[in-house]
Every structure is written in structure tokens, then in C-alpha cells.
Fold these 2 entries.
Entry 1:
Amino acid sequence: MSPLLTLHHLRKSFGERQLFDIDLLNIAAGTAYVLTGLNGAGKSTLLRVLGGLESAEAEAAAFAGEAVRFSPYPQAMRESVIYVHQHPVMFSTSVAANIAYGLVARGVPRQRIDALVDDAMAWAGVAHLRDSRTQTLSGGEKQRIALARAKVLQPRLLLLDEPTSNLDGAAREQVLALIPSLTASGASVIMACHDRDLIALRGVHRLKLSGGRIQVRAQRSRVA
Ligand SMILES: Nc1ncnc2c1ncn2[C@@H]1O[C@H](COP(=O)(O)OP(=O)(O)OP(=O)(O)O)[C@@H](O)[C@H]1O
Ligand SMILES: [Mg+2]
């Protein structure tokens, strides 16, 4: 698989405290990763750094085959990397308007937006919620809508912060079932989660953040 993102010597500190110092982070195209680690290990911060929401230093970086300067965060990544918050924030309009939001901001023509939003809602299994207000949605519905809102922008890298941590049973399975189709369409996915919630999807690679370093773990082969 070709590399999508390579970062050498990625360092993040808050004041005097160094949170991580990662020798090498290699993310392949069209590949899913789970990022585990204890509470406070820095999983969310690392995802926010990769998504350009938090600054960090890297010695060398390459994205989609081009060498880039990582700081300030490169424009090429801003257009193609999306961070999905653990508790997605929704505007208090309809579900469809929430999913359309990023496309409207990009100036995509209205007719094209409608078609893309319809496709994304069908993909996430939320077409029946099209005109619902977002205040009444369940946690699982919100997560799937947040994934649809991200997917519609055709990212090359999706950063999901504990997408299933507040879900159980069918809601959790519905969210997890969307991941393989993201990687099949060429996107890479990094999901933060806890060891106890470890997602056992086929072919998902494991990264563990511990003591400010990344350990690459063996792949899981079991299907969820
Ligand atoms: N803006 C900030 N300023 C100072 N310290 C911060 C800031 N953001 C995070 N931290 C600290 O960095 C550490 C890592 O936090 P982070 O949220 O990345 O951990 P996490 O691995 O996602 O934890 P959890 O499993 O609880 O979600 C924590 O000790 C946190 O207090
Ligand atoms: Mg976190």
C-alpha cells in the first residue's frame, strides 16, 4: 500500500511537559488503524495534531507523495484530512443541512450538494432522518451523521476520536460497519479507542501510544 502520511520525529509539548516524541509515524493509503493508549496518553491530542487543530513540530513530513512542512499545517492536508470529535457538534438545523454544511462552505453547486448528501445519508443509514432536527438524535445516529458529514467531503484521512465509546449493541456495530467501506473507497482511517474497546475488524492495524512513543502492534485478523 502506498504511503499517505509520513512524519519523522513528531513532538508535542504543553508548556514544560512533553506529551509525545514519535520517531516515525507511517500511515498507508486506504488503511484503517486503531490508536490505543491509557487515559491521558495523548490519543486525542495526536489526532488533533494530525488534523491541524493543534500545533506540533515534525522534522520531516510527506503527504500523498509530496514533501510538506508540517508547521504551519499544510494546505494540502487541510483539504483532505478530517477530524471527527468524540461528541460531534451539530447545528440546530436539519440532518441534511448538517451534512451539506462543508459542501456549501466549499462552494459546491446546490444540485450537486443534494445528490452528494442523499448518497452520504444512504451510506450511513440515516436517510429516514433527513428532515429531523439534530437535538433529538441518539448518540449512534449522531456518530453516523458525523461520519456522513465527513465522508461527503471525500477526505483522504479520517481521524475518529472514540467513535463508539458511548455506544453499545447495534449502534456500535452500525458505526463500525461503515469503516471498511471508507478504506475500500481509498480513505485511511485512524480511530482512537481504549484497549478494552479494541475494534476487531479484519485488516485493521494497531498503534499504541504509551510513554509518549508509538508502538506498532500486530494486525487483528478476526472479524468484528
Ligand atoms: N490544551 C492543553 N493544555 C495542556 N494540557 C493538555 C491540553 N490538552 C490536553 N492536555 C493534556 O495532555 C494529556 C493527554 O490528553 P489527551 O486528551 O490527548 O489524552 P487521551 O489519550 O485522548 O485520553 P482519554 O483516553 O481520556 O481520551 C492529558 O494529560 C491532558 O490533560
Ligand atoms: Mg481522548
Entry 2:
Amino acid sequence: MTRRCALVTGGSRGIGAAIATELAADGHRVAVHCRADSAAAKAVLDALPGTGHALVTGDVGTPGGARGIIESAVAQLGTVDVLVNNAGIYAEQPVATTSYEDWQADWRRVVDVNLLGPADLIWHLVDHLRQRPQGPRGARIVNVGSRGAYRGEPDAPAYGATKAALHSLTQSLAQSLGPLGVAVTAVAPGFVRTDLAESMLVGDAEEQVRRQSPLGRIAAPSDVAAAVAWLSGERAEWCSGAVIDVNGASHLR
Ligand SMILES: NC(=O)c1ccc[n+]([C@@H]2O[C@H](COP(=O)([O-])OP(=O)(O)OC[C@H]3O[C@@H](n4cnc5c(N)ncnc54)[C@H](OP(=O)(O)O)[C@@H]3O)[C@@H](O)[C@H]2O)c1
């Protein structure tokens, strides 16, 4: 059987690295993508189970970035059957204490990376899928959203807004890409112990975060990766349009 090919954006660390590892263990050939830290991405790549993986770099938040990322993944792997839009940034921007210049700059950068990046990557992926000999059927797109879209992000409103928009984009595209046989889903993780979240775990905060979940622990990247790997599979077609909570029952909706 032909091995399926997956592109994981932001695969150089944190949740993306765990997703790349899980997909490789499931038999995929994986393109590990990062923005700038190719040494970290290479270390993830070298540790992946199996062979035939690839390294892709590029800023998802710049015009042209998405095209280059899809083109590079397709050139190295031959195609992309699974796109995991995981790369994302978080910006602290409390409205009452942030200058207007910083407020504007943060909004634009977060929208560029967290929302326009995935939208552009999906456009270029669909363009590729429609042209490939076997057609688009069976492809999967999994977007990494956030619990913050539902619970609110009082000190990071652009982050919360872009994740809510990414969930909405997931649902719209699940409808528009269904006729092509492409399933589109999202996960909405709660707090996960990664570089992005580490600064929020200082002092008493760590215990408070642990208590958010009745399971009494803080999530590891592998907790999210397990859900993404399942959604990436061919058997997950009927989940299309779903935004799956991966938050240890810390926020129920
Ligand atoms: N950690 C949490 O608590 C949590 C909770 C809910 C949702 N999430 C979401 O999960 C995803 C991964 O989070 P994480 O905690 O694993 O983050 P992380 O440890 O900060 O890693 C972020 C990854 O994204 C890449 N990246 C950042 N900006 C980029 C850009 N402009 N273009 C291309 N790649 C870029 C980074 O590449 P470089 O290393 O090259 O910069 C890195 O590989 C994000 O979408 C985040 O919003 C995280």
C-alpha cells in the first residue's frame, strides 16, 4: 500500500513535533516544517520512525510563504495527503496596558500567522490536490485551534479571535471541500506544556493550571498529537466539520 504523506506546520517543537512523530509512527512520510529553527526541525526529523521524511521551512504569515511551503513539501514527498495547520503564535496584549502601536502590530502579526497562514496553505493544497493524477479524494486537513476560542483570552484577544476564526474556517471548508472527498477538522486544546505556554507556568500558576482539569495534570504535546493523528486517517471522514475539544474536561461547552 502507498504510504500517505503529511505536512505538519510548526513541527520543530511542542505540539507539532509530537504530531510529526505520531504520524510517522502511523506510517506516514512526514514533512516537518518550521519558520526559522531548522536545527530543531532537523533534530525532530532525524528522530522520526521510518524513512522518506522531509524538512520544509518558511514563514506562514507572509505573502508567498504558504505557496513555497506547499511547493517544497510536494517536491520532496511527491504529494501531500494530510495538512496539519499547527504553526501558531501567542501575543500578550492586555488592552488597558498595551500601546496602540503594539496593539496594532500584534493584531496584524497574529492574524497573519494564525489565520491567513492556514487559509493560504489550504488554498495551495487544494490547488495541488485538484491537479494530482489521483485527485483530492481521501485528503485530510486538521487545524489546531484552541480552547481559548470558547473560554476567552482576556490578555491575548487576537489569539482568541484568530482561533475562533480558525474553527469557523474549518467548518466552512468542511462543507465546501466535502464534494471533493476532503475532510476538514480541528482540535481545540486546552493548556499544553510547550515553549509557547511555559511563561504562563511560573509560581502558583502551574498548580492553578493543573487544577483546571479534573484529571489533575497538565497536558503533554502527545495528548493533542493522538487526536490529530486519528483525525488525519482515512477512517475519520465522517468527523468532517468537527472541532474536537482536547482539554481534559477543563472547559465543557
Ligand atoms: N501550548 C498550548 O497551551 C496550546 C494550547 C492550545 C492551542 N495551542 C496551539 O497549538 C499550536 C502549537 O503550539 P505550541 O505550544 O506547540 O507552540 P510552540 O512550542 O511555540 O511552537 C510553535 C511552532 O510554530 C512555528 N511557527 C511559529 N511562527 C511561525 C510562522 N510565522 N511561520 C511558520 N512557523 C511558525 C515554530 O517554528 P520556529 O521554531 O521555527 O519558530 C514552531 O515550530 C499553535 O497553533 C498553538 O496556538 C497551543
